[in-house]
């Protein structure tokens, strides 16, 4: 092989080796950058995973609070229904007490209207019946007032519990 051709081939191979070495250095730099990028992405993925876990934990806590609030609201609605029932009972009892009071008053008026100077000819049995009726109505009134006060007490305790 002629020397000039050999030297030309050697120079070409050296140039090719230098170009390959330069290309290898460039690939090594790109590989380092890629490794750094992969490390950064992995670190970021790990951070995002921990953030996601924290967010899921907060979501779970918020859902639990929501369920508790819904349970509390349901319980308060039930208590409100009981309080309304108690209020209706109180109104009914008040109405009954008022009616009984009116009837007792009317009977007392009727009794007072009877002449007191001696027994009337045919009314002693009627007066005794009216007095018995008045006593029975007064006892019923007393009983109703007692039940009414118990219902009012229950109603107040329900309201206080609902407020708390």
TrEMBL record:
GO MF: actin binding
Domain of life the protein comes from: Eukaryota
Keywords assigned by UniProt, alphabetized: Coiled coil, Repeat
Coiled coil ranges: 10-86
InterPro entries noted in UniProt: RAI14/UACA
Official protein name in the record: ANR24 protein
């Amino acid at each position: 092989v002629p020397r000039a051709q050999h030297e030309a081939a050697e120079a070409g191979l050296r140039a090719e080796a230098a170009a390959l070495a330069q290309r290898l250095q460039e690939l090594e730099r790109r590989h380092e950058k890629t490794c750094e990028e992969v490390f950064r992405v992995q670190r970021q993925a790990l951070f995002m995973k921990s953030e996601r876990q924290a967010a899921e934990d907060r979501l779970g806590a918020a859902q639990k609070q929501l369920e508790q609030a819904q349970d509390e609201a349901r319980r308060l609605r039930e208590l409100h229904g009981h309080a309304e029932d108690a209020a209706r009972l109180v109104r009914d009892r008040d109405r009954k007490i008022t009616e009984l009071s009116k009837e007792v008053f009317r009977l007392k008026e009727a009794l007072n209207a009877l002449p007191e100077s001696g027994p009337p000819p045919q009314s002693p049995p009627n007066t005794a019946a009216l007095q018995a009726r008045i006593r029975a109505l007064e006892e019923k009134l007393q009983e109703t007032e007692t039940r009414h006060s118990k219902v009012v007490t229950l109603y107040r305790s329900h309201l206080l519990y609902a407020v708390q």
